[in-house]
Amino acid sequence: MSNPLHRTRVKICGLTRPEDVDAAVAAGADALGFVLWPGSKRAIDEARLAELAARVPAFVTRVGLFVDQEASLIERASAHLDLLQFHGDESPAFCASFTRPWLKALRMRDDLDLHAMAEAYQGAQALLLDAYRPDMPGGTGKTFDWSRIPANLAKPVILAGGLTPANVAQAIRAVRPFAVDVSGGVERAPGIKDPHRIDDFLRQVFLAQSTDFLDKT
Ligand SMILES: O=C(O)c1ccccc1N[C@@H]1O[C@H](COP(=O)(O)O)[C@@H](O)[C@H]1O
């Protein structure tokens, strides 16, 4: 994103409690992520999704996170979602088979060809880039080498992986992503968000782009 007026969007992921949804909305998050994959320590079931999604006001995007899951579950959950995030080995055709727009999450394994992935997943709204760990599909709390992200990628980038209030400004300056995505970096325990860390994260994003804007005008 080279436009100095671009406002970096923020997704807070892994929400499990009503008070955390309210805190993220109050802090100014653009999108809220709900993990429907039962292997996660932040997993919620469909009933909880319905309860949490109903609290989200207009103009805040409700994102459902799935890892290689049954189409029937994704279809049912979609009733409460605006956007789908596929974090497993889902094919482009599978991702495109639902009634919602979608993101493809990619884990930055050493041999990943991002240009090829942008071509393969051209139906995605954006590519969400996360750290690679062989034993976890995502949400590792680890960063990766941001210099591996090409500036001329054909898809918008959502930067994820180990972001915190302490490093998100540096990440924005280095990558200039469309959006940033955080889970563990704003928690006080797995699945339990810390409202102060959420506020701090949003503040750091705001400051990073404000100083950037002033530098360029
Ligand atoms: O959060 C999870 O438990 C999770 C599980 C499986 C796949 C993805 C998951 N989370 C996603 O990973 C990013 C990065 O997490 P973190 O900030 O490093 O903790 C997170 O934003 C979710 O989109």
TrEMBL record:
Q: Which Gene3D superfamilies does the entry link to?
A: Aldolase class I
Q: Which top EC class applies here?
A: isomerase
UniProt catalytic activity: N-(5-phospho-beta-D-ribosyl)anthranilate = 1-(2-carboxyphenylamino)-1-deoxy-D-ribulose 5-phosphate
Q: Which InterPro entries match?
A: Aldolase_TIM, PRAI_dom, RibuloseP-bd_barrel, TrpF_fam
The metabolic or biological pathway listed in the UniProt record of this protein is:
Amino-acid biosynthesis; L-tryptophan biosynthesis; L-tryptophan from chorismate: step 3/5
User: Which UniProt key words apply to this protein?
Assistant: Amino-acid biosynthesis, Aromatic amino acid biosynthesis, Isomerase, Tryptophan biosynthesis
Domain named N-(5'phosphoribosyl) anthranilate isomerase (PRAI): which ranges? Answer: 10-202
| MF terms (GO), sorted A to Z | isomerase activity
- Report the EC code(s) recorded for this entry: 5.3.1.24
Entry-linked HAMAP family:
PRAI
Please report which protein family the annotation says this sequence is part of. Answer: Belongs to the TrpF family.
Q: Specify the protein name.
A: N-(5'-phosphoribosyl)anthranilate isomerase
Give the organism's phylogenetic lineage: Bacteria, Pseudomonadati, Pseudomonadota, Gammaproteobacteria, Oceanospirillales
